[in-house]
Design goal:
Elements lengths: L5 E6 L5 H11 L44 E3 L14 E7 L2 H14 L9 H20 L4 E7 H6 L1 H11 L6 H7 L10
Parallel strand pairs: 1-2, 1-3, 3-4
Helix pairs in contact: 1-6, 5-6
């Protein structure tokens, strides 16, 4: 396993990042989490978040990333450009069908009693797709980022294959059987 780089699980919100964090933890990696955001109906197995991540674009305090070397941290796609260039990153970028992301987000907002009609699904999809195109182009140009794109829907149907691929990407040494065993198809509730 790569102990010099920071392993990052990223993607759009509701794209399977928490599932991948749980897989990597089961495989033997240490997740950087603070457990402030508790598991709920939308993520019954936990969010795997670290509040300091949310300050990446607001604060100069990024020294904590040194502690993340050899560990895994979840960072949403919008904040990847805020990472300091003096470190190396192994990014596992989750991809999920856009219709499922939108449906999952809408369901989460409904459960929380928040408005769901502020922006149309079509406009939100257009903005997300534009963001992803720009970000993928930027990532391809960063010498300190090594990125693998992982299809959420395929992980659900072929967890063994994707656990092995993640193990190889991260330099080996993970328990791929334990990683694959984490995948819970019953949590795939928004289907496209």
């Amino acid at each position: 396993m790569d102990h010099e780089s920071v392993t990052i699980v990223s993607g759009l919100p509701r794209s399977g990042t928490s599932m991948m964090m749980k897989m990597l933890e089961a495989g033997g990696m240490t997740p950087m989490v603070d457990n402030i955001r508790k598991a709920d109906e939308d993520n019954p197995k936990g969010y795997y978040e670290l509040e300091r991540v949310k300050e990446l674009d607001k604060s100069d305090d990024k020294d904590w990333l040194v502690e993340a070397q050899g560990k895994v941290v979840k960072i949403i796609s919008q904040l990847l450009k805020e990472l300091p260039s003096n470190q190396t990153y192994k990014v596992i970028f989750m991809r999920r069908k856009m219709a499922e992301i939108l449906a999952s987000q809408k369901q989460m907002l409904v459960r929380r009693g928040q408005p769901t009609d502020q922006i149309s699904d079509e406009e939100l999809a257009r903005l997300f797709e534009q963001h992803l195109r720009q970000l993928e182009g930027w990532l391809a140009e960063q010498p300190n980022f090594d990125v693998v794109y992982v299809p959420y829907n395929e992980v659900l149907t072929e967890p063994d294959k994707h656990a092995a691929a993640m193990n190889e990407f991260l330099g080996g040494g993970l328990d791929t059987d334990a990683m694959a065993a984490v995948v819970d198809k019953s949590l795939h509730r928004q289907r496209a």
